[in-house]
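Ticket reopened. Same input as before:
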Amino acid sequence: MEAFYFGPSESYLLGVFHPRQSTNRNEAVVLCNPFGQEYLRAHKSMRRLAINLSHLGYSVLRFDYRGTGDSAGDLTGVTADHWADDVEHAIQEAMDMAAVPKVALIGLRLGALLAAKAATNNKQVSRLVLWDPITDGSSYLGDIKSSVDQAQKQGSRSRILEPDGTIHFNGFSMPPPFQETIASLQLDNLTPSVPAPIAQIVSHEAEAFTNLTRQLSERPDFYYELAPAPHDWNYVDHVGGILWPKPVIDAIEAYFDQRAF
Amino acid sequence: MREQVVMVGDDLPLVGVLCEPDLDKHSAQNTAVILLNSGVIHRVGSCRLSVTLARNLSDRAGLATFRFDFSGIGDSEARRGTLTAAQAAVEEVQEVMDYLSQWKQYDRFILYGLCSGAFASYRTALADQRVIGTVQLDGYCYMTWKSYLLHYAPRILSPSRWIRFLLRNLGFSKQKKGAEVSGIEERYFEVPDFAGYPPRQEVKQGLRKLNDRGLNMLYVFFGNEHYKYQKQFEDCFNPVAFGDNLKVIHHPYATHILSEPEDRKAVVESISDWVLSLIEDKQQLTDNERQTGYRVCVCTSNENPN
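Engineering reply: fixed in the latest deploy. New output:
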């Protein structure tokens, strides 16, 4: 494993590269994180997935988007387009480091939506794996706002700050430009422009997932799997407990083991 | 400010990020702040607090900082051995101090930690003289008669509390702990495995030792069930006379994970101010010693002209 900074100097990104540990699959993998508290709680899962995939022969790059984790800055002035650019930087970095011609993207929650955006019309992307994806940015924000409202009723001081509309949710801030650009993203609109095969691997059933499956089933290369596992990424306790949904991690690993591209 | 990823150790390295101020902004070339993990959250800290604090300390206080993952947490691989997690934490902080001393010539360190990170900073300070200050968020403290009173008085007067108490004692409800609180199956939910609190007398002796050594201590307590009023820490460890070595800040409305932005901002600013003031005091002391040393030298020279 190698950890380092990469990308433009003004928006440098933390990367963690796991070189392949067995037969070369000639394909690298980039993992795309979810947002905020979900990212903290997913770190261990993402790391374990990266290690397991590297043992299957895939070099894997994990990274932090700008304004998150150990990467540069905060989210002031950052948009979803910037994060999609960060995914593209990560794709290039993974190709360079692994010396492979193509990269698979795995995105969890909001990371799936951003990975889909980065994969549109992108011939470097060999496949796109949507793990418990956010299917509609606007609904995602609506859910966050209702959670904040609910928390306020239960005595939380979390709130939507006036006058600029920044949301503070579970310890992380989402400024208006970020919200606006996230709200404009929908998997329905993005996936038709993704030339690579798509897999949808989910830990539970939901109406949004069913609708997405229906739409994607028209693609000949579509893969779907339900691997029941805990999925409450926004549950926050007082000691910083971490979610560890092993069955769905195993399912993604098995998909990469059985299907080489 | 410049940041670089650093791997400490050849075999199963500890992964961290060194954050250094611009060369013309260094306030103390020989001092670095080390930020420790809290619980099982990786080095960015609860609500990214460690990153915000590290950068603030570099920008505002002109100090180098190093945030890293203990072995088995975040990006650092687990190491095998017979040490408990608490013992290993002290050894790993010392390993980091040795590394930074050799590489960057830092020889004085301020340790920062929240919760289990605070406990580790306390234990490391006891074990290593290079530590000149600790910043402990929700560090070791125990109930006093006054805190018991403040804790239980409202409960005694609350009918709903009595009902819950009776239901629990009659076996109709259960107080949930650890992973149970989440409702998530334990095998899918990792919570920190905190070692029990050491006995109060042990911590009191430790603090007395640190205080006698002149360790500077900043304690910040949040709104939890165990810390009830500003002076609880001093009452708890009475008769240790901390004097100027100790500063205690109490944020009674802040959560343990500092989820509110204004609480994080206030805590980061107060830590940076305290650290800056500590560095200035140490600098002043060094200057005074240098001046005193010069006088002694002259005096000696005058008194002993061979």
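DSSP finds eight helices and nine strands in chain B. Residues 294-306 of chain B have pLDDT under 50 and may be disordered. Please confirm and we'll close it.
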